[in-house]
Automatic annotation (TrEMBL):
Name of the protein in its database record: RfaE bifunctional protein kinase chain/domain
Pfam families linked: PfkB
Organism (species): Paracandidimonas soli
GO molecular function, one term: heptose-1-phosphate adenylyltransferase activity
Superkingdom: Bacteria
Keywords: Kinase, Transferase
GO cellular component, one term: cytosol
């Protein structure tokens, strides 16, 4: 394992574009069942807001020591103001489009004794005018960054992802994508795509063996003209596919407590390491280690440079 490239990481400038979310947690105790319905009554003792979606990718980049610029769409509401405030507190340079016609994407989780009991989602699709504004801002920012990260949660901010990839290619900026859905043609021309196991199955179908997986993954990589395809496989670790072949990284997780946001941490670590000059193999190894750390934490969390060292 190579040494953590701390000095190179500090010089990295990464642009993160994607679906912004606020992850809201209400923690409490449960000691009775409601008389109104057979559900637990949670007496809330603590409330906490965290950056989610693309914002959590940016938060992880900063935690590792890199510089992150964040671009996405939020509503003109309390949750949007919370996203802006948390981004600022985290050291993220946020440049977000406000859309008056929609609420900021909010995922509210209620937990009793550290167990998630309920999640309530608030989300709507952004307007065409907001997407136009996002495209304009992206074009003005891409060339001044080392890497472009696209974090797709299918909430609408990346409806025009093809344009963003084309502009980055023209500027000579590598593009790393966390994909969503089965239509991977949208990501044609990106540098690397990081599907999880379920997302890859949706794109290429179920594989019968590791050899079958390799054939399907490499076929997808060549079809999309990617440099690399990294498949995150939960307890099986992750597998990297490049023109040089296949490399597998067994999981480093000691105990899986919560997988929320693990893909964000993996993507952020890949981006930071690639921007710092590491090759795909070393970048994937660092990302695998970071993913193994973050799944041992509760909720949407980060991994710091000190933890990776």
């Amino acid at each position: 394992m190579s040494r953590f490239p701390e000095e190179a990481v500090r010089k990295t400038r990464i642009l993160v574009i994607g679906d912004l979310m606020l992850d809201r947690y209400w923690f409490g105790d449960v000691d009775r069942i409601s008389p109104e319905a057979p559900v637990p009554v949670v007496k809330i003792a603590k409330r906490e807001d965290r950056l989610g979606g693309a914002a959590n990718v940016a938060r992880n980049i900063v935690a590792l020591g890199g510089h992150a610029t964040l671009l996405g769409i939020v509503g003109r509401d309390e949750a949007g103001r919370s996203v802006a405030a948390l981004a600022s507190e985290s050291g993220i340079e946020a440049d977000c489009v406000e859309d008056e016609s929609l609420p900021t994407t909010l995922k509210m989780r209620v937990l009793g004794r550290q167990q998630q009991l309920l999640r309530v989602d608030f989300e709507e699709h952004p307007s065409a005018a907001s997407l136009d504004a996002l495209s304009r801002q992206a074009e003005s920012l891409i060339a001044s960054h080392d890497v472009l990260v696209l974090s797709d949660y299918a909430k609408g901010a990346l409806d025009r992802v093809e344009q963003l990839i084309a502009h980055a290619r023209q500027a000579g900026v590598p593009v790393l994508v966390d994909p969503k859905g089965a239509t991977y043609e949208r990501y044609h021309g990106a540098t690397l795509v990081t599907p999880n196991r379920a997302e890859l199955i949706e794109a290429v179908g179920r594989w019968k063996s590791e050899e079958d997986l390799q054939q399907r993954a490499q076929e997808l990589r060549r079809k999309l003209e990617l440099e690399a395809l990294l498949v995150t496989r939960s307890e099986q670790g992750m597998t990297l596919f490049t023109a040089h072949g296949r490399e597998h990284f067994p999981t480093h997780a000691q105990e899986v407590f919560d997988v929320s946001g693990a893909g964000d941490t993996v993507l952020a670590t890949l981006a930071v390491m690639r921007a710092a000059g590491e090759d795909w193999t070393r970048s994937a190894d660092w990302a695998n280690r970071a993913g193994g750390i973050v799944v041992g934490k509760l909720g949407t969390s980060i991994v710091t440079a000190e933890e990776l060292k």
